[in-house]
């Protein structure tokens, strides 16, 4: 049996349209697929936890039909059943994880390929704990966690008014680059202490610090060109204080992965990262924004199983 978790809001209705087509497939009926539609943020996580608890033994996989936000929730919902395979059908606006996982097919073709010819890939994601002193729990991210400008951009991109505007003009693919343009005027360097694998890094100010599991970010930007999803380490990208003009130029070159040639950009590799600050740090994790004082990040020790095509 497959359980399908569908976010009807993902990709401005793209996920829902695809779900209607998948439901008509003979394979869908033959494989005894059962579906659940999410009703609000956080629902995919609760659903994933419930269905794995109940059907853990007989479940061939959880099919996630939505964007990276929905996948983030599902992966966190099944944390304690990490051998449950996840079959991700990207139908969001960014779809960076599908790029990172190097999925070639999309939509119905991907559904058919998962069910007819299941191939599995084990991936080490990363865990993070925000604000350790407040004892917030450990969570997992699929794409990236970033501090500074990164957090401001996602915050701007998620504003309801702005989302409706990008939908109206059919430019949802440009959500992140436009939000970046809006945020650049407000950005100031953040001040922090940074430890990689326990060793303090001698950089205390930056425009942004981003930690990623794979190369892609913000709807296809190649933020960490050398990062590979099957690697045992994390990529850490630090953009040191830089003029707004240069920052803009940097984000044009990000699409080609050429920004790492700039002297203000440093790329590191490590398995653990600790960042802290005396000021609130704006952050984003897999496209959700917030603010924190410290964060501890660690490459996961147990892998998550994904279907691949
Ligand atoms: N019924 C719903 N109505 C509104 N929002 C929902 C609903 N169900 C889930 N959500 C929320 O929608 C948010 C966005 O979903 P998701 O990230 O999957 O799509 P997206 O934003 O279009 O894609 P991407 O993250 O790839 O850009 C998620 O954080 C999720 O919590």
Automatic annotation (TrEMBL):
Names of the cofactor(s): Mg(2+)
Domain DAGKc residue range list: 1-103
Pfam families: DAGK_cat, YegS_C
Keyword terms of this UniProt record: ATP-binding, Kinase, Lipid biosynthesis, Lipid metabolism, Nucleotide-binding, Phospholipid biosynthesis, Phospholipid metabolism, Transferase
Tagged with keyword Lipid metabolism: yes
InterPro entries, per database record: ATP-NAD_kinase_N, Diacylglycerol/lipid_kinase, Diacylglycerol_kinase_cat_dom, Lipid_Phosphate_FormReg, NAD/diacylglycerol_kinase_sf, YegS/DAGK_C
Molecular function GO labels: ATP binding; kinase activity
UniProt xrefs under PANTHER family: SPHINGOSINE KINASE, SPHINGOSINE KINASE RELATED PROTEIN
Record-linked NCBIfam families: YegS/Rv2252/BmrU family lipid kinase
Protein name from the UniProt record: Putative lipid kinase YtlR
Organism expressing this protein natively: Halobacillus faecis
Originating gene: ytlR
